[in-house]
Amino acid sequence: MSKKIAIIGAGPGGYVCAIRFAQLGAEVTLFEKARIGGTCLNWGCIPTKALHRSAEVFHDTLHAADYGIEVEGTPKANGQKIFDRKTNVVETLVTGVEQLVEANGIRVIIDKAKLTGGKKVAWSEGEEEFDNIIIATGTVPSAPPIEGVDLPGLLDSDKLLAMSEIPESMIVLGGSVVAMEFASIYATLGTKVTQAVRSRILRMVDTEIIKRVKPLYKKQGITINEKTTPKKIEKTENGFKVYFDKNGKDYEVEAQHVLVALGREPVSKGLGFEEVGIELSKGSIVVDDNLKTTADGIYAIGDINGIALLAHAAEHQGVSVAEHIMEGKPVEHVPVPNCIFTLPEIATVGYSEEELKEQGIEYKTSKFGMAANGKALALGDTNGMVKIITDMDNKLIGVHIYGPHASDIIHEGIVAVSKGMTVDDIKSVMHAHPTLPEAFYEAVLGIDGIAIHALNKKR
Asked: H helices of 245-360, where?
């Protein structure tokens, strides 16, 4: 007998979950208060990466002479055309997903949904009972308790993506992935960027990688202030002024715009979660190993459960929950990769050195620089490195990359770490030449001191 499934939220987790349920024969209703694709497709991952590509092209154009290409005049970044291209990319992708959802026979209700008891969902035009409910409501930008943070004209990530100008100057509050991506993109496009970070930038990234990329960010024109806490924001004639505490000393900066990128909060208020017995922790839904909530027959996937605030984690959870409900499979918990689209890109999966030291786990490391990679030399982009971490039995447990196409190269590392592959497993796989993934191969060989295009450490 087919199951009736309700999914609340049509972001990457929700719509992917809906499609997988439909493939498995369920009758699926997908609720979305705005538009299919959620934050990621409409106001997050995809538009940001479209801007990232424009920044890359602008950077390459400025350095065209390095490649023997003559460009007349000084290249300029046209904010309106960049914005229009970003919008077109988003529209193309979202329209495609809408068609895909329709082709899978999924009923879509564009309305705000609410749990009303048992396994019932209500919306403005009706109420219906389902066999299972999947909550995928995600997160929204949060506003921390800073004086003046509610001033009109301040930007969060959504508002910045709706802006069609390249600001002359911008203060970025925060050192998260969102903060760093916008800082790097806009600095490359010509904005004077001042960044204030409470601790350090990109705290989830291996410290050695951060030490190497920080000078590259500064070279782009980002002034990074770490251990700096915002105290007050004021409106000025030409923009805003932000007052900080920097290592115990007062510090202030003026800029045309201020981007508040100090975190996100779960979308969990007013949706009936607590009324139906769903336990929350700091706004996130508490789930068990199979992503089931404390309410019978109700599950939570993606950002709302607080496990990993990444679109691909939500997608994986959505597929796993569908297969758990329809086929009885336990939900898979696998290593979660992280890709950061700054210039240069950063990509990681598995343990960092800091995590292993904290847990007292012995490990080995090997590194290979992009400066010794033929494809990177041909690209003219040799700022980069692949770092491999293995356990004492040579099993890969961490891969950390920065440099050209890091977000692509990391997938070899994702497979290796997820499947428990060893140095010998990778060594036996032929790598095409000349390609950037050869740097991954060489870094892996370096664990045993047999890298070909690098001097190996004596062991």
From this structure: 311-327, 353-359
Phi-psi region of 91 (alpha: psi -120 to 50; beta: other; left: phi over 0): alpha
Burial state string for 79-105 with b = 16 or more CB within 10 A and e = fewer than 16 = beebbeebeebbeebbeebbeebeebe
Total-model pTM: 0.95
Are the C-beta atoms of residues 179 and 266 closer than 8 Å to each other? no
- Residue pair 229/204 in contact by the 8 Å Cβ criterion: no
Give 257: exposed, middle or buried? Use CB within 10 Å, 0-12, 13-18, 19+: buried
Output the pLDDT for position 459: 59
Helix axes 438-446, 406-418, angle to 10 degrees: 50
> How many Cβ atoms sit within 10 Å of the Cβ of residue 300?
31
pLDDT confidence of 457, banded at 50, 70, 90? confident
Angle, vertex CA 304, rays to CA 300 and CA 307, nearest 5: 85
Mean pLDDT across 43-55: 96
Q: Which of 39, 57, 60 is nearest to 48 (CA)?
A: 39
Nearest to 264 by CA among 295, 235, 302, 227: 302
Q: For residue 375, how many other CB atoms are within 10 A of its CB? A: 18
Query: Please, what are the domains in the chain?
Result: 4-140+265-327 (3.50.50.60), 157-262 (3.50.50.60), 344-446 (3.30.390.30)
Catalytic residue among 333, 405, 431, 433: 433
Between CA 85 and CA 93 the distance in angstroms is: 12
34 Cα distance to chain centroid: 21
Cα 318 from chain centroid (whole Å):
17
pLDDT in tens, 152-204: 999 999 999 999 999 999 999 999 999 999 999 999 999 999 999 999 999 99
- What distance in Å separates the CA atoms of residue 206 and residue 348, rounded to the nearest whole number? 8
End-to-end Cα separation, the chain, in angstroms: 62
Task: Look up 433 and say whether it is catalytic.
Answer: yes
